[in-house]
Amino acid sequence: MDQRIYSVTELTREIKELLERSFPRLWVEGEISNFKRHSSGHLYFTLKDANSQISCAMWRFRAGSLRFHPEHGMKVLVEGDIQVYERGGNYQLIVAQIQPAGGVGALQLAFEQLKKKLHAEGLFDEAHKQPLPPYPARIGVITSPTGAAIRDIISVLRRRAPGVELLIYPVRVQGEEAAEEIAAAIDSFNRYGKVDVLIIGRGGGSLEDLWAFNEEMVARAIYRSRIPIISAVGHEVDYSIADFVADYRAATPSAAAEVAVRDQAELKGQLAYYRERLQKSLLNRIEGYRNTLESIRSSYAFRRPQDQIFQSLQQLDELQRRLTRSMSHRIAINTGQLETLRKQLLAMNPRAILNRGYSITYKNGQVVKDAALLARDDQVKVVLAKGSFQANVNAIGDDNE
Predict the structure, then answer these.
(1) Given phi > 0 = left and psi -120 to 50 = alpha, else beta, which region is 248?
(2) Which of 113, 143, 144, 275 is the most buried (most CB within 10 A)?
């Protein structure tokens, strides 16, 4: 046989060379299905339309640059190279980049995906947002040290609150490393802990320029911050992810500075107004108390205690007079009774009897009441009304003798 016979490997290799030479890098539109992210970081999926499908692979070093997450059923535009996988004998598309189809940009899709994810996790909840301090003494600013944003913030703070201390943490605000620097600055301020509020942001720009403030690591750093944060990304119409997570969103850096501090002139005017109101209020209250006291002083109820005292004094005098009369009457009665008892006592006094000519006879210190108690020659003592004498018993007789 003159016809060449190919081995499977030879045939596959020629087909590979033919296909890969015939199809330079190209764009293909289709729908993603069977999407898988391998543990190595490589992406594998099928790109299909209504009638056909092609296997696709995207290596890790390219997949890491994707702004959004490819999903099953997503319409996309894929740029890549046709390649034959010799071992399996099938052809596939090695993907260099993926873009959403239908006019939606990759950044916008990534924004919507992250917004949906963080909202579901509760990072946008109002309950988690911290109130801004009314009178901060020290403000931290995370932004580019050379941009217009920091100049605007400094200008506003000098005008409104020159006494507030400003700490600037310089970072890049766009580019690949910007998000990492912003998140690190937020964490650093929290470790430092000596600022009252943080302002993060930059001036205006395109969605790509502002993308650092749409990164997940920045959103999570804002969420875990114990210091209240004002997001000041310079775009008045559109919101960034940082705006949704921050405790307060300002349209521009200048607006953030105005929100962060009260105007000194305004505060002075307000203090003067409050001082005047306080003085008037105190004067009105004092006058009211004075009128109340005067009304009480002139009222019958206020005079009544004094009248009660006077009446009590008068009653005391009356009680004293009654007591004096009662005591005098009692003394007179007791004096008369005492005199009567005295006379009775005098009448019963043995010496009064002696005055009528009687005497008392004692024998051995005992009163002799019966002559039978005496014997002849007994010595007795005889007491008279005046004086006494000793006697010797010569004879004893009965009562009738």
Answers:
(1) beta
(2) 143
Instruction: Give the Cα separation of 345 and 341 in Å (integer).
Output: 6
Cα distance between residue 36 and residue 57, in whole Å: 10
Q: Binning pLDDT at 50, 70 and 90, where does residue 384 land?
A: confident
Size (the chain), residues: 401
pLDDT at 43 over 60: yes
What phi and psi values does residue 278 have, to the nearest 5 degrees?
Answer: -65, -45
Fold type of domain 111-126+136-261: Rossmann fold (3.40.50)
- According to the 3-state scheme, what is the secondary structure of 275-325? HHHHHHHHHHHHHHHHHHHHHHHHCHHHHHHHHHHHHHHHHHHHHHHHHHH
- Torsion sign (Cα): 96, 98, 103, 107: negative
pLDDT value for 179: 94
- Which residue type sits at 322? R
Q: Structure pTM? A: 0.55
Q: Do 164 and 139 meet the contact criterion of CB atoms below 8 Å apart?
A: yes
CA distance 229 to 394: 145
Helices 216-224 and 106-121 meet at what angle, rounded to 10? 30
Task: Please report, in angstroms and rounded to a whole number, the separation of the first and last CA atoms in the chain.
Answer: 213
Quick count: other Cβ atoms within 10 Å of Cβ 366?
A: 9
Same fold for the domain at 8-104 and the one at 111-126+136-261?
A: no
Q: Residue 6's pLDDT band (boundaries 50, 70, 90)?
A: confident
DSSP 8-state symbol, 63: H
Picking from 303, 300, 210, 203, the residue whose alpha carbon sits closest to that of residue 254 is 203
Chain centre to alpha carbon of residue 232: 29
User: Distances from the Cα of 291 to the Cαs of 285, 306, 364, in angstroms?
Assistant: 10, 21, 99
Mean of pLDDT values over 371-395: 87
Taking the domains of the chain in order of start, what are their residue ranges?
A: 8-104, 111-126+136-261, 353-392
357 pLDDT above the threshold of 90 = no
Strands 26-37 and 75-85, sheet pairing: antiparallel
Q: Tell me which of 89 and 201 has the higher pLDDT.
A: 201
The CATH architecture annotation of domain 8-104 reads Beta Barrel (2.40)
Q: What is the pLDDT of residue 257?
A: 94
From 241, 221, 208, 209, select the one nearest 181 (Cα to Cα). 221
